[in-house]
Amino acid sequence: MEITIGGNRKVRRAYGFDEIALVPGRLTINPNEVDVSWNLAGKKYRIPIIAAAMDGVVDVKFAIAMGRLGGFAVLNLEGVQTRYKNPEEVLEKIAKQSPEKATELVQKVYKEPIKEDLIIERINQIKSSGVDCVVSAIPQRAQRFGAIAQDAGCDMFVVQSTVASLRHESSEYSILDYKKLLKKIKIPVIVGNCVTYDVAMDLMEAGAAGILVGIGPGAACTTRGVLGIGVPQVTATADTALARDKYFKKTKRYVPVITDGGMRTGGDICKAFASGADAVMIGSSLARAKEAPGRGYHWGMATPHYNLPRGTRIYVGTTGTLEEILLGPARVDDGSQNLIGALQTAMGSLGAKNIDQMHSVEIIIAPSIQTEGKLFQRAQRVGMGK
Questions:
Q1: Which residues contact 9 (CB under 8 A, 6 or more apart)?
Q2: Burial level of 329, CB count in 10 A (0-12/13-18/19+)?
Q3: CB 306 within 8 A of CB 294
Q4: Residue 310 annotated to the active site
């Protein structure tokens, strides 16, 4: 629906997770009998949750734990794990720093050069455990690090930037040719981040194995405040999912849409799938795990930028094990644990047997969904009032 904001300037209304609700239909299913698995580049994963490539979330041990639970984690090849032989000391310093000095410290920490021997070492450590190894880099380092990752035996590679596009102009530096990169690298490559139909279609046509969707919704990200750009995740997911479906109809190649960021609870994750996601990438929820290296802290990938940080360090606390957060049993009342259990229960209530059927459930605009009847919860700061 177009709205005029003044003069002849027309804008389109977009929606986030807090503004919609999912409507049960005439069929319900036993939650234990729904299928939450998904496929990416010919591989099947038991759970449709990916751990974000952030230093407060993923290290080698966390990646192994995530893989053993049926998903996978993405290790940031430009983080502390590949800059320092002993990253534990660095992570401890970041956790102990005051809020006023945290960004300054993170900027200093990330000035240490990336070491290619550590990239290979971290990949080998993950691979030796028997789980899939997935790593990420920004476009400027994608060619070099992608080749290293492939040669070291990685299963997938992620090229991730604040805003991804197939067409980029610059007179100051060489430009990454996504088409050439995606043909050259023989392992599947996930590309992001985007929020529109056109860019998603461009990246799929270039050969991406998966598309990351989301600009600025993460809990530790300040892109929307610093740059003023982004699209709420419900609309962004639905728009890119439309590109996926049209691309599949034309080519018979299915490119999964992965909603990245903005999900705080199991309910948000369920809404992402209803909006069209095939999987979700989350950071802050998993940063709360005992296995997470951030010690209860979480910071965005753009936080260490030397000139214009677009992230901050936040305290999320440590609330349970990774297994409790993903698979339960939940020991908190706010929807931040047993995320897969929440998804299964929602799918059963909505009559969706699998992720594909979740794409077709009824969605309504419901701005009061977070507040209706929740006065006592808000007043007492429990449940949905936290």
A1: none
A2: exposed
A3: no
A4: yes
pLDDT digits (tens, 9 = 90+) for 210-225: 999 999 887 777 778 8
Band of pLDDT at residue 309, cut at 50, 70 and 90: low
Q: Which listed residue (83, 288, 310, 313) is catalytic?
A: 310
- Reported as type and span, the H/E element at residue 210 is strand 210-213
Q: Which helix (H) or strand (E) holds 345?
A: helix 339-350
> For 336-345, what is each residue's pLDDT tens digit?
999 999 999 9
In three-state secondary structure terms, 126 is helix
Query: What is the predicted pLDDT for the residue at 181?
Result: 92
Q: CB–CB of 271/294 below 8 Å?
A: no
How sure is the predictor about 173, in pLDDT bands with cuts at 50, 70 and 90?
low
Nearest to 339, CA basis, from 356, 357, 319: 319
Q: Please pick, among 194, 221, 244, 270, the residue that the annotation labels catalytic.
A: 221
CA-wise closest residue to 259 among 38, 19, 32: 38
In angstroms, the CA 309 to CA 346 distance is 37
How many whole angstroms from its chain centre is CA 153?
23
Cα 278 from Cα 255, distance rounded (Å): 9
Is 9 annotated in the active site? no
Domains and CATH numbers, the chain: 2-385 (3.20.20.70)
In terms of DSSP bridges, do strands 72-76 and 49-51 run parallel, antiparallel, or are they unpaired?
Answer: parallel
